[in-house]
Amino acid sequence: MSKRIFIKTFGCQMNEYDSKRIYDVVKEIGFEKTDKCQDADCYLLNTCHIRDKASEKVYHEIGRVKKIFRLKKKPLVIVVGCVAQAENKEMLKREPYIDLILGPQAYHKINDTILNFTGKEKVEETEFDAVTKFEYLSRIKNKVGKATSFLTIQEGCDKFCHFCVVPYTRGPEYSRPFDQIITEAKNLVDQGSKEIILLGQNVNAYNYKNQRLSNIINEIEKIKDIERIRFTTSHPKDMTDDLIEVYKDSKKLMPLIHLPVQSGSDKILNLMNRKHTIEDYLKTFERLKKINPLVEFSSDFIIAYPGEEEKDFIKTLNLIKEVRFINSYSFIFSPRPGTVAESLKTIDKKISLKRLEKVQETLFKNQIEKNKSLENKIINVLTENLTEDRTKVFGRSEYMTPVIFKGSKKDIGKILKIKINKSNRNTLFGTVIDNLDQKVA
Ligand code: SAM
Ligand code: SF4
Ligand code: F3S
Q1: What is the pTM assigned to this prediction?
Q2: How open is the CA angle 432-435-440, to the nearest 5 degrees?
């Protein structure tokens, strides 16, 4: 009988991609996935370290697993991801229930680590070895069967924003070889993917022997059965001319650009070590709008960063009104261990919360208005799966907005024309009009 693995994933899309690839790898040594934690022979937790209480969340989760297995044989417990990297040996000391720790650049070692584990000694693998990892992973097929797939093209970060743990947990910037990426993209499409979302902590910093993100997009665009291309997450400083130009002619690159700005104040951007100004950001926005008026932006905001005064905060609100971001994320600043901002004086909790509420109110207003403006219009939707009650279909608009409509299994993986009848802040509801080919965004 095969062994069963239960995988739980916290954090960003890169962690989702990693969990998927880890499963492809452990399948080689006989593991099958289970959705029932209590049935697992191996419990794997993929962790995120980006904001506060991240490690507490991990220990809490392991405590829950311990309870589930109280009266049963203990599963092999593996913790991977960014908390594993940040806490490494400390984690094994604090929670002896954990057997193996692997950092994000050590996943190629997972099968050997499992096979060599005797139970006597705990194992920790946290070296940064992205080259070997991706070489190894490229030999193992990315098995999907989903309409939309992630594809990591770049990992790590050299920018060291003062608030962020990523350069410490993912290591230095690394770009995967160009051909390796194109082969993986073709393989995903052969298995039925219609959309590829290119991933990287700094995806637009991709640079492999002078091949840039724009070259990857142009090459993937040539794959016949691919319908949509997206990329995330970008840094404003790396929105280079060649990348902006792709928006002029590409038929498949979607018009939503996630470009985190964090704050609308130059003073705060400087304190954060973001390496660009609001003027630079707005220039990029205007150039893109000029090249392709359908382009819209979404963003990430950090509210109440140490030193943020009311006047800085107002600048953030003004920027949101000017750019009219859609689908954005906003968080109160959270001091992270090992970062420059860790020891800075934080802003009063009440003020921070009030600012967050105000920002979210402004962002939500944009989102509601944008969705409302689509009512009675016909839009292209890529259908991804059935809803839980199996009578409706879930898909996404070109701007990533969830769309729900009456349909069946046969609709999955198709781009359909949907007439929007109703909307709320997060979702559009509609009816199928036709099954025509997608038009240029
Ligand atoms: N590389 C991307 C960039 O340069 O914007 C961001 C990647 S980070 C994984 C995702 C988001 O988490 C950031 O854009 C930021 O808004 C948020 N974030 C990171 N560190 C944070 C912190 N210490 N407190 C609050 N939010 C944080
Ligand atoms: Fe973190 Fe992004 Fe800054 Fe890198 S560029 S340190 S990933 S916020
Ligand atoms: Fe979290 Fe690591 Fe992603 S800290 S956001 S899982 S890169």
Answers
A1: 0.95
A2: 105
Q: CA 177 → CA 155, 173, 181, 183, distances in Å?
A: 12, 13, 7, 10
- What is the per-residue pLDDT for 440? 40
Sole residue written with tokens 């790396």? 238
What ranges in 194-250 are assigned the alpha helix state H? Answer: 213-221, 241-249
Q: Which domains does the chain have, with CATH numbers?
A: 3-129 (3.40.50.12160), 132-373 (3.80.30.20), 378-434 (2.40.50.140)
157 lines ligand 2 (CB under 6 A): yes
Q: Ligand 2 center to residue 161 CA distance, Å?
A: 5
Q: What is the pLDDT of residues 379-415, one digit of tens each?
A: 999 999 999 888 899 999 999 999 999 998 999 999 9
Residue at token pair 């219009």:
377
Alpha-carbon distance of 394 to 362, in angstroms, equals 27
Nearest CA to ligand 1 atom 12: 50
**Structure-block tokens of residue 314:** 């107002």
Residue 259 Cα to ligand 2 middle (Å): 12
Q: Which ligand neighbours the alpha carbon of 337 most closely?
A: 1
Q: Whose Cα sits closest to atom 5 in ligand 2? A: 159
82 alpha carbon – ligand 2 mean position (Å): 14
Distance 275 CA to ligand 2 centre (A): 11
Kindly list the protein residues whose Cβ atom lies closer than 6 A to any atom of ligand 1: 12, 50-51, 163-164, 166, 201-202, 233, 235, 260, 262, 300, 302, 331, 333-334, 336
